[in-house]
Amino acid sequence: MRLLPVLVVTLLLAAIPAQAKERLFVEVADPYIELHTAPGRGFPIFHVIARGEPVTLLKRRTDWIKVEDERGRSGWVQRDQIRRTEDEFGRRLEVADANREQYRRYRWEMGVLGGDFAGADGIGVYGAWRFTPNLTLQLGVTQALGEFSENALAEVGLIHSPVPEWRISPYFGLGTGVIRTDPAATLVRTEDRLDQTAHVAAGVRVHLTRQLMFRAEYRDYVVFTSRNDNEELQLWQAGIAFFF
Predict the structure, then answer these.
(1) In terms of DSSP bridges, do strands 212-224 and 168-183 run parallel, antiparallel, or are they unpaired?
(2) Residue 102, SS3?
(3) What number of CA atoms fall less than 13 Å from residue 157's CA on the CB side?
(4) What distance in Å separates the CA atoms of residue 83 and residue 127, rounded to the nearest whole number?
(5) What is the Cα–Cα distance from 114 to 239, expressed in whole angstroms?
(6) CB–CB of 126/38 below 8 Å?
(7) Closest CA to 205 of 236, 238, 174
(8) How far apart are CA 16 and CA 106, in angstroms?
(9) Model confidence over 46-78: pLDDT tens digits?
(10) Beta strand spans in 164-230 (E)
(11) What does the alpha-carbon distance between residue 207 and residue 204 come to, in Å, rounded to a whole number?
(12) Spatial contact of 197 and 222, defined as CB atoms under 8 Å apart
């Protein structure tokens, strides 16, 4: 196999609209590529383009690329076979994985997380909007059931991701909210409390597949009580989220 420098295609084909005005022209470098009638392995192969023939890349659908040969025949080629083409300078193309590209560009995120909240079992749901590649605004609620009290937490936070394009991407956050504490006292009646909170967070997102990610996080809380001393609480949680 010839050793050729890899050309990372800036447009990554994922950004090519169905009726793109600019087309990318390449030449088949391996023995052949196979044209399917539609984007999927279950659709039949109706034509084979041999080494040395030029093709035009038209558009992309997930991991399938629509191409056209010099005689005007068009069909769908699997992404890995497009790597068997070269540009006009003889450099192999590198086509980005569609799922990774979607992960890098997503705007909305929703998930369910569970873990330990100050010694109690906690479960929470959240929704988030990524308004820049590095910054995300998140809203969430968490319910924690302990032996001595029940806590309900509602909060808003800002998350910063230094390297959002990484498959395993660390992040850091700041947030505020309110926590309602319902004591489970049976002998002595204790008043329910509603207090303000602030927290710092550190965590990691891991892209699993398609629109699914794993997320794990640690938070350190300060609860501003009406008593003389504020409380410090810790939250460890992990769970599954999807993005779109």
Answers:
(1) unpaired
(2) helix
(3) 25
(4) 37
(5) 6
(6) no
(7) 238
(8) 17
(9) 999 998 899 998 888 878 889 999 999 999 998
(10) 168-183, 193-209, 212-224
(11) 10
(12) yes
Tokens of 244: 């779109």
Question: Residues near 135 by Cβ (< 8 Å), separated by ≥ 6?
Answer: 158, 159, 160, 161
- Model pTM score: 0.64
- Measured between alpha carbons, how far is 241 from 108 in angstroms, rounded to an integer? 10
| Site of tokens 């629109």 | 211
End-to-end CA distance of the chain: 39
CA distance 178 to 133: 28
In sequence order, the 6+-apart residues with CB closer than 8 A to the CB of 186 are none
Task: Give the Å distances, CA to CA, from 145 to 125, 150, 186.
Answer: 15, 5, 16
Q: Which of 3-12, 30-39, 157-166, 206-215 has the lowest mean pLDDT?
A: 3-12
Query: Tens of pLDDT along 6-39?
Result: 333 333 344 444 444 456 788 888 888 999 999 9
- Give CA–CA dist 104/166, Å, rounded: 8
Angle in degrees, CA 142, 196, 124, rounded to 5: 5
